[in-house]
Amino acid sequence: MMKLREYRPADFEQLWALDQQCFSADVAYSREELAYYLAGKTSICLVASEKNQMLGFILGDHHRGLGHIVTLDVAPTSRRSGLGSTLIRSLEERFASENCTSVFLEVAVNNPAALAFYKAHCYSVLKTLRRYYPGGLDGLLMGKRIGKGD
Fold first, then answer.
1. How does DSSP classify residue 133?
2. CA dihedral of residues 64, 67, 68, 73 (deg, nearest 10)
3. pLDDT digits (tens, 9 = 90+) for 58-77
4. What is the distance between the alpha carbons of residues 28 and 36, in angstroms, rounded to a whole number?
5. From CA 147, how far away is CA 150, in angstroms rounded?
6. Burial class (CB in 10 A: 0-12, 13-18, 19+), 47
7. Stated pTM of the model
8. 117: which of 16, 73, 74, 82 lies 20 to 30 Å off by Cα?
9. Environment class of residue 41 by beta-carbon count within 10 Å: exposed (0-12), middle (13-18) or buried (19+)?
10. What's the CA gap between 5 and 100, in Å, rounded?
11. Rg for the chain (alpha carbons), in Å?
12. E strand or H helix at 89, and its extent?
């Protein structure tokens, strides 16, 4: 049975390995980058696991009423199971409990699966981020309102 819980420092190596598996080498976070995001005072990281096996995680932070999704990683064997939806809804609930009114994220223009996923969760494209990713690849800034009435 899948469990959703808060990140613990003992999870770090599994989180990093999953991020390496989910993204290309030029986009995946280095150990130092991932540690930096996890150490933030306002960071929130939720981990999904089953029988000590990491199935996925979502990492975000918040500041002045804005939530930011840093990364959403789901193991290939757990994709299309609803896990990503569970993770994003759970993080949005946490952001709302921290009085966030909006959430934003960045996604590569050449990632149609992620774009469709975020659009299905009511995220809209706010603007194009020119040459945001390595190799000059554009990104898209996406966002949505959350909280009361949404």
1. S
2. 150
3. 999 999 999 999 999 999 99
4. 14
5. 6
6. buried
7. 0.94
8. 16
9. exposed
10. 21
11. 15
12. helix 83-97
- Average predicted confidence (pLDDT) for the chain: 94
Distance CA 12, CA 34 (A): 9
CB 130 within 8 A of CB 138: yes
Scanning the structure block, which residue is given the tokens 């990364």?
Answer: 71
What residue has token string 């899948």?
2
Query: Residue 26: what pLDDT?
Result: 87
Distance CA 136, CA 150 (A): 35
DSSP state of 76: G
- The pLDDT score that the predictor gives to residue 110 is 93
Q: Tokens for 139?
A: 């990104």
Note whether 87 and 74 are within 8 A (CB).
yes
Confidence at residue 150, expressed as pLDDT on a 0 to 100 scale:
52
Residue 45 has pLDDT above 80, yes or no: yes
Q: How many helices (H) and strands (E) does the chain have?
A: 4, 7
The phi, psi pair for 105, rounded to 5°, reads -160, 165
Q: Which residue has the tokens 């999904």?
A: 48
